[in-house]
Amino acid sequence: MPIFLFRKMKTNRKIPTKEEMIEQLWRDGMFMPPLSFRFLEREPMVGKNRRLDALIEASWKGKVAKFVVECRPLWTPMAFQNGIIMLKSLTLPKDYQPMLFLPFLSEDQLLELEREGISGIDMCGNGVVVVPGLFTVYRSGAKNRFSLSAPIKNIYRKNSSMVGRVFLVRPVFKAVQEVRSEINQRNLLVERWDKKPMSLSTVSKALSTLEQDLIVARGETIRLLQPDKLLEKLSDNYAYPNVTERLRLKVHGKSENIHALLSELAQMLDIPIVATGISSVKRYAVMQRGDLLSVYCPRLDKLLERLPGNQTTRLPNLELIETEDETVYFDARQEGYFSWASPIQVYLELKTGDKRDRQTAEQVKSFLLKGIEQEQ
Fold first, then answer.
1. Which residue segments constitute the domains of the chain, with CATH numbers given?
2. pLDDT tens sequence across 5-38
3. Strands 274-275 and 293-297
4. Most buried residue, 38, 44, 105, 197, by CB count within 10 Å?
5. Who's near 354: CB < 8 A, 6+ residues apart?
6. Can you state the percent helix, strand and coil of the chain, rounding each to 5?
7. DSSP secondary structure letter of residue 50
8. Is pLDDT of 312 > 80?
9. Using an 8 Å Cβ cutoff, are 84 and 105 in contact?
10. Residue 1: is its pLDDT beyond 50?
11. Which residues pair with 294 in a beta bridge?
12. Is the pLDDT of residue 2 over 60?
């Protein structure tokens, strides 16, 4: 496997500017045995209004290929796709091939470039040079040597995930303010507890990441593009809620009576009570579960004062989980006076379970995707 390196490359650098990337090509060059590279021209003009980033030449055993280089200082999915679109839209000079130049290229991106017939190189040691009829050289596996100037918040985990989750409930919005309003209206801890509403800046930052990841698109509307990818991101980054206390009780009566009792207490004490995702499965999928009802509540002490039950580990029928994690209350679905978990919360909890749970999660996924199709 040929080695590909930039000379004088430093590790742990911040994101380079486009000018720094072009300077790197011009000053230090690159090598990717068996290919030899030569820098030809910096920022040449094409026509009257278009300036290219650079022209370079690659040669091997007397075979020479010339490239138009498009530099992109970010390596997000959106920056990568925009680079490909730009190269495809260009009218290239005669006998020149397209090449994308990023700080980092993942293996999936390299494979996509190869499928598109576009060459690509990065500043970490990865690259694919494709010239039909002459040569193809491929190199992957080098780690990303660049660090961001500020840490990116994981918008698929904890409270920020509600921005992504709301698009699985309502896939199209007219404005950022509308997204924020929908999130806060569906957050039971904002509506009925003391939690602060999500800020407009938080929503805007999360939307920017969703857009960079090609999950939503912003134009005349803000629209969900890839629900499957969004569900995958939310599942991969799902974190269990922070639990303050967990108790199991034996409450006398049938399960319907326990639901009615909890609904009555929720209204009387003005306290949110929502069934867990696992206890809410039957609302969205076919699955047999035991009689234990598990619920989330932000204040168990207030609830325990009124519940006619005894704490036990032997055949309990009610589990109380104290948490102020806003995501588990988000988009709770009311049935009568009792609140069940959102189908999104059900899906995420099932995905962390055993094989049977994960199989059932696919039913809930179908339920969600069907709802999105009807809303679009």
1. 5-147 (3.40.1350), 158-236 (1.10.10.10), 245-375 (3.30.460.40)
2. 444 444 446 778 888 888 888 877 776 778 888 8
3. antiparallel
4. 105
5. none
6. 40, 25, 35
7. E
8. no
9. no
10. no
11. 319
12. no
